[in-house]
Amino acid sequence: MNNKSKYTELIKTGAKRLGFLSCGISKAEFLEEEAPRLEAWLNKSMHGEMRYMENYFDKRLDPTLLVEGSKSVVSLLLNYYPSEFQNEESYKLSKYAYGTDYHFVIKDKLKELLHFIKEEIGHVHGRAFVDSAPVLDKAWAAKSGLGWMGKHSNLLTQQVGSFYFIAELIIDLELEYDTPVTDHCGTCTACIDACPTKAITEPYVVDGSKCISYFTIELKENIPTEFKDQLDNWMFGCDVCQDVCPWNRFSKSHKEPLFYPHPELLDMTKKDWDEITEDTFKKVFNNSAVKRTKFSGLKRNIEFLKK
User: Fold this and answer.
1) Other CB atoms closer than 10 Å to residue 23's CB: what's the count?
2) pLDDT at 1 (0 to 100)
3) Which residues bind [4Fe-4S] cluster 2 (predicted)?
4) Per residue in 258-276, pLDDT tens?
5) Domain residues of the chain, as ranges?
6) What is the 3-state secondary structure (H, E, C) of the chain?
7) In whole angstroms, how far apart are CA 166 and each of 139, 163, 169, 223?
8) Burial readout 80-97 (b: 16 or more C-beta within 10 A, e: otherwise)
9) Would you place residue 2 in the very low, low, confident or very high pLDDT band (cuts 50, 70, 90)?
């Protein structure tokens, strides 16, 4: 076994030991296919008020500009599909936000993996990325053979669907590279048909400025009144396109204790949410991704759903 094979195997074994669902590796290079797609998406203003998407255009497409001397992008998936769900008489929260903010959980795992790589292999320079830097996570995961991009623009796998986080290590180590898998969406249009705001404008294209997740998390201004009856009771995020996807019949519950919800969260009813205080918000969403929208943002969303 040559060093490339040996190191590749070592990294994938280390990722599995840390609880990652899967690990795929691709060559750090310019994402040629993604460049025109990203440019067209931005030109059509499908990013809405998410102005940060316009920044670092070149770095988004070329990891060698992000991490000097980088040779490989190690893509990792971490399952967040829960074993228990919210009370049906409740405003809805995206499943990824049930437990501790994934940024903290995954960053710790990535740091541990990078430390393990350095210990086992020697001097390896690299950086960890979790959804908060100009990295096209889904494109790299697809390039690394971890799944295909579904018509709802989420990464899909035949084995476990799409309820997982994507993260990367970009490192200056040459490894053996995986190849993309084939698309298995076929003629299915379940996600397109089910989207309450018709944000999936065509297969594989999502107008972010019409997405419920955008309205309830990213948008700082008031939610446009034209979407008044279209939010389907979602107060933070939205899982509709994933919930209706046939591949998510194969979702399996995660085993990450930090992703378990606060005991009170699942039993809360609409009445409880209507009457939520800032103290309860802080208690239920301590270290949660929901803190991103703040108490005032969550209240705004609930009020919009009530009217």
Assistant:
1) 22
2) 62
3) 195, 211, 238, 241
4) 999 998 999 999 999 999 9
5) 3-85+99-171, 190-245+263-306
6) CCHHHHHHHHHHHHHHHCCCCEEEEEECCCCCCHHHHHHHHHHCCCCCCCHHHHCCHHHHHCHHHHCCCCCEEEEEEEECCCCCCCCCCCCEECHHHCCCCHHHHHHHHHHHHHHHHHHHHCCCCEEEECCCCCCCHHHHHHHCCCCEECCCCCEEECCCECCEEEEEEEECCCCCCCCCCCCCCCCCCHHHHHCCCCCEEECCEECHHHCHHHHHHHCCCCCCHHHCCCCCCEEECCCHHHHCCHHHHHCCCCCCHHHCCCCCHHHCCHHHHHCCCHHHHHHHCCCCHHHHHHHHHHHHHHHHHHC
7) 10, 10, 11, 28
8) bbbeeebeeebbbbbbbb
9) confident
Amino acid at 157: T
Which segments are annotated as binding site for cob(II)alamin? 60, 131, 155, 166, 213, 238-239
DSSP β-bridge partners for residue 128: 169
Nearest residue to 144 (alpha-carbon basis) of 251, 10, 7, 22: 22
Q: Cβ distance 48 to 208 under 8 Å?
A: yes
Q: Which residues are annotated as a binding site for [4Fe-4S] cluster?
A: 185, 188, 191, 195, 211, 238, 241, 245
pLDDT digits (tens, 9 = 90+) for 74-103: 999 999 999 999 999 999 999 999 999 999
Q: Which residue ranges are tagged as binding site?
A: 60, 131, 155, 166, 185, 188, 191, 195, 211, 213, 220, 238-239, 241, 245
- Binding-site sequence positions for tRNA: 220
The catalytic site residues sit at 131
pLDDT tens, position by position, 123-181:
999 999 998 788 999 999 999 999 999 999 999 999 999 999 999 999 999 999 999 99
Rounded to two decimals, the pTM is 0.95
